[in-house]
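Take a protein:
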Amino acid sequence: MADNVLEISGLNKWFGPVHALRDIQFSLRRGEVCALLGDNGAGKSTLIKLISGVETAEQGTLEINGQSVDIKNFNVTMARQLGIETVYQSGSLGEQQSVWRNLFLGRHLRNKLGFINQQEERRQASNLLRKLDFRGVGADIDTPVNLLSGGERQGLAIGRAMLFDASVVILDEPTTALSLGEVDKVLSFIEALREQERACLLITHNMNDAFRVADRFVVMDRGQIVAQYSKAEMTQDALHKALLDAVGRGA
């Protein structure tokens, strides 16, 4: 479908004799937040590593924004070029570097002479922080990242994905170990992704977070997708029961 920014079909992955992912069929629509749920070892991390180019698969097809990908040679650089950005739990930020330098880390803007265009990077960083409604110490683009709160760090990492015009943003446990106020801030950033018509794949163990922001829930167990649910068709309690039932059937 034209609205699908990500299409996966028949994806299989082995680690030696271990069949880590089994015949994965998955799609992600533009402007959709999809929560990927399941216990540890269900295959969630392996799947997002394949989508983000960290790992390669032996079988299957992958399409990003309508472009077919050679899954055996797919890598992180190619994923980014096609609009895939991944925000890991750590945020992958330079602790001693300033906010604006972190936004362009590894992908600096260059002037005609090939030097880093600091003026333009600072301008774009200031505009982004205003859009993200950063306040206090986090609103200063010269603030070192180690002075930011956990929620601000996650927001900065998500903002980096926005800055480079990602069409698919993968978030790996973005609210772990955050206070309630910080969690709310990060979930608001996720809702902003939807408003900008970006697709978001959210990996989380927190059902409250998932139910607040996700439009669809995909359940994995032992390397397989065992169930999918739309938020429109169930309550949070019903989702929790359905998740337990789906994983229990695979036991």
